[in-house]
């Protein structure tokens, strides 16, 4: 991909797992990358150092993406250093309960829905002025295959991410005339992430691998490749779409 050089990409939740893989790949493709993190300052610094060692540009910025003032401060800091954000990759994982509906409280389900949408709303609002001003932008949200393929105990995450997917479609329709694309990358289970360690025991992992045509779980780098495709300057005519990064599970 050729058209990314110099663009500023903000990756929320960029200090580990999928977010770190995305940050490293976008930097390798020539973008200046903002590694947002909540608490993992050491891990974020390591991602920035790895990018710098590979010849890229990156900075780490702490902000809770659920807090409007914190997000606005983050974007102001980026704007002062590098100008406006050209590419938003909203990857930050908002905590959620793993439980059946019958065992779940409204605070657990409604709280996840509220936090998920509030974070997406807040970070998108913060970066849009620069994108609309230049009539160019790329927005990529991280979803999940659980939005369409339910799994036991995952109703809070699946429902919240389904709402995020529809939010993305509405934005794609509204922002298209301004040169801004909005897409979703929806992974299946991903190795080497806190989420997979939290919800996938060995037996469930084995069943998931057996059900996957490509015969393994995704790696963070697999997800990063799909995000980088959507984020690139050359990908100018896809918007409102969802890419399933699940090894073929969703076609069955």
TrEMBL record:
Keyword Transport: no
Membrane spanning stretches: none
UniProt cross-references to InterPro entries, sorted A to Z: KR_dom, NAD(P)-bd_dom_sf, SDR, SDR_fam
GO function term, MF aspect, one: oxidoreductase activity
Gene3D superfamilies assigned to the protein according to its UniProt record, in alphabetical order: NAD(P)-binding Rossmann-like Domain
Domain Ketoreductase: 7-193
SMART domains for this protein: PKS_KR (SM00822)
Name of the molecule in the record: 3-oxoacyl-[acyl-carrier protein] reductase
Organism: Actinacidiphila glaucinigra
Keywords for the protein's UniProt record, in alphabetical order: Oxidoreductase
Similarity-based family: Belongs to the short-chain dehydrogenases/reductases (SDR) family.
Pfam families per the UniProt record, alphabetical: adh_short_C2
């Amino acid at each position: 991909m050729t058209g990314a050089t110099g663009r500023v990409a903000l990756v929320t939740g960029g200090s580990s797992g999928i977010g770190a893989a995305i940050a490293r790949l976008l930097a390798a493709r020539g973008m200046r990358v903002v590694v947002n993190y909540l608490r993992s300052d050491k891990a974020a610094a390591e991602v920035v150092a790895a990018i710098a060692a590979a010849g890229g540009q990156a900075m780490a910025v702490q902000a809770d993406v659920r807090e409007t003032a914190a997000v606005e401060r983050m974007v102001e800091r980026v704007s002062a250093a590098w100008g406006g954000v050209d590419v938003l990759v909203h990857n930050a994982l908002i905590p959620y309960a793993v439980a059946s509906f019958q065992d779940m409280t409204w605070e657990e389900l409604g709280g996840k829905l509220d936090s998920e949408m509030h974070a997406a709303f807040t970070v998108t609002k913060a970066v849009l002025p620069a994108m609309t001003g230049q009539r160019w932008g790329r927005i990529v949200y991280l979803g999940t295959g659980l939005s369409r393929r339910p799994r036991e105990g995952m109703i809070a995450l699946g429902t919240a991410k389904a709402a995020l997917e529809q939010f993305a479609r509405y934005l794609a329709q509204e922002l298209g005339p301004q040169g801004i694309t909005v897409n979703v990358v929806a992974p299946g289970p991903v190795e080497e992430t806190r989420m997979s360690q939290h919800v996938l025991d060995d037996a469930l992992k084995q069943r998931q691998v057996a059900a996957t045509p490509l015969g393994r779980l995704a790696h963070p780098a697999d997800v990063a490749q799909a995000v980088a495709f959507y984020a690139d300057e050359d990908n100018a005519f896809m918007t409102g779409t969802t890419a399933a990064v699940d090894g073929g599970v969703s076609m069955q």
